[in-house]
Amino acid sequence: MRKFKTESKKLLDLMINSIYTNREIFLRELISNASDAVDKLYFKSLTDSSIQLTKDQLGIDVAFDKDARTITVSDNGIGMTQEDLDRNLGTIAHSDSMAFKQENAEQQGDDVDIIGQFGVGFYSAFMVAKSVRVVSKAYGSDQAWAWESDGVEGYTIEEAQREGNGTDIILTLKDNTDEENFDQFLSEYGLKDLIKRYSNYVRYPVRMEVSKSRQKPKPEDAGDDYKPEYEQYTEVETINSMVPIWKRSKSDVQQEEYNEFYKQTFHDFTDPAATFSIHAEGALSYDALLFIPGRAPYDLYSKDYKKGLELYSSNVLIMEKCEDLLPDHYNFVRGVVDSQDLTLNISRETLQQNNQLHAIARKVEKKVTSELKKMLKNDRAAYEKFFEDFGRGLEYGIYTSYGMLKDELADLLLFYSAKEQKMVTLAEYLEAMPADQKSIYYAAGDSTDRLAKLPIVNTVLGKGYDVLLCTKDVDEFCFQAMMTYGPEAEQDAEGKDIEGTGPKELKNVASGDLDFASEEEKKEAEEAEKDNEALLAAMKEQLGDAVTKVAVSTRLTDAPSAVTTEGPVSLEMERLMSQMPDGMGEVKSQRVLELNAKHPVFQVLKDAQSAGDAEKVKLYTEILYDQALIVEGMPIADPVAYANAVTKLMA
């Protein structure tokens, strides 16, 4: 027995138990090695006219024997001599493929794509096998050789028999244990699944004998009651598709093919809403095929959802979901990225240089943004359906970036216009604004129907200004992060900003001062507050800490009262935070009870105050406050007390 070289026992143990985290990739590694061996022979045929073969004569075969507990991976590639076996398999981490790749770097072109890099993929076989036998015959040699090892101390090399050039790798699988079920690899379904998942786009056919069923011919003497009979048979079938759809010319692929690829690969039953690709060449060359789903997955907004694109290197699947390729706000995008320039780590499960991923991710992000803008412009109905499913994520992108992503994402947002009664973009809102409008107004709540009936919303509409009705939980948080929207201010000849131009502030109609009351209206409100100072003080005392103040409103027209807020926390934000864990419900808004001094109810309050009827003032104060909260969709502290107060008023 020959001993493994380079501290092999410790290193081999590292290969088997530490380098790889997923046992099922052993077949990916063996098929990749077989592909390299076939590529080397094909390359040799391109440079040596004495070798007469065509690409369709080359391939890889996979077989299994359940009784013998063996899996065999065979190729008709370049093969190995006795010295090659000793050097390549007896020396851990020696990559003959890497050496070949470096020696022929300038000559390979698109015809040859060597996958191997580190010379350790072969040893992944010992994760599932208790022994491995390699029978190989080098091209042009008359003698085959067999390498065999149990992956512990060493290996043997002896003469063997093989009909043609190439290599057979025979794995004798380990016995099952309570923790591990190795029988899963000894089935037609199990092996086909691994081939399709990890090696579907290896450039040579991966063949396997598969079981099929067919109907037997109907006997000539069969009666009317004859029932069709079926028989089982086997035939060799190519399992992999070889040519990735993302590397085919777009003009050669029908949209139906893209749709079918999307549905099969990402297990969706609906066609994608959009399909687009990237083909980059240069210092980092890669191909990407990306999809916008036609519907949101059920778990999109759950903590279990995992974003990411499938990452391939030289057509071999490296990661099923590479999270680094997508920003969180585009977590819904699905697709594949394939590059032969990626610097992989030794297990080929992750990458060594994240800057390569970052470069691809930036291009992917820009492409998605561009395609969404194109959809918004060219297919409004499709975009509105997309935004209904995925718009929340775009808004979260602005909110979680503290507004840094608003230049990229704000133009993609849609909101319901109370004036237009349809979804509009912020740009469309600005375009329709009257010349005297200073801000972008919005109202936040749980439904557009309820928001449209709010007194303050109707007041703003009465001024000729539109109000965006925001019903998603993230809408107001997004707007607060954005603060403003619109193009930069225009400048005069002296370089000063022209008044009325520039970004517009985003204002909640139920928060703060909307600043569109006339000077006369403001003066009337101030006088009403001064004349009724005692009444407002009595109402504030009755409401206590529930409000920060009671004031005369400059914006109410028909309603007797409204609850507004001061500061950054609106009523809607308070409502949302009350539903959150970890004590977020303790965040309270600074409520203001605004009164309509021109409403008949205000006159009743004034009369009660003048008559010294404190009980009536108290009753009206409680009713007005609770009514205002109900209109805003907020819970009231004591529904029973409110019902009793209304009953008392009616009696």
UniProtKB/TrEMBL annotation:
ATP binds at E29, N33, D75, M80, N88, Q117, F118, G119, V120, G121, F122, T167, R348. Residues 518-545 form a coiled coil. It is found in: Cytoplasm. SMART domains: HATPase_c. Keywords: ATP-binding, Chaperone, Coiled coil, Cytoplasm, Nucleotide-binding, Stress response. Residues 493-507 have a biased composition (Basic and acidic residues). Residues 1-348 are annotated as: A. Transmembrane segments: none annotated. Residues 489-513 are annotated as: Disordered. Its main location: cytoplasm. Residues 22-177 form the Histidine kinase/HSP90-like ATPase domain. GO terms for molecular function: ATP binding; ATP hydrolysis activity; ATP-dependent protein folding chaperone; unfolded protein binding. GO terms for cellular component: cytoplasm. Residues 576-651 are annotated as: C. Homodimer. Molecular chaperone. Has ATPase activity. Belongs to the heat shock protein 90 family. This is Chaperone protein HtpG. The lineage of its organism: Bacteria, Bacillati, Actinomycetota, Coriobacteriia, Coriobacteriales.
